Please model this.
Amino acid sequence: MKPAAAAVPLAPSIGPAIVTIAGVNIPPLALILSIAALLLARFIAPPSLEKMAREQEWALTGLLVLILFLAVTGELPLVGQGEPMGAGMAVVTGIGIGFSGLLTIRLISDRVAAAIKAFFGR
Model:
């Protein structure tokens, strides 16, 4: 006689873990938490040495959210293995991008400029 198998209760799940929109796998929980972390980090980060108008601050935050979206979904080159991030790593990435702000944009633009110069041999 075999012993009875123990029933394992399944944890309730609210919504899908990954949503695919236009061929992009989006982890909703990781994305929401990472955007919240980015916005909170932008709020508590020390002011930038460069003075920007309120509209420029909003534009910078929007650009950082876009970069964060690409990183969390795994679509940003050189970040991850092309797979969506888990919630923990997404939050850490959001905090890092939120605190670095303008430095992140400058780093990316310098890398693109170097790639263009290398491509055209100048």
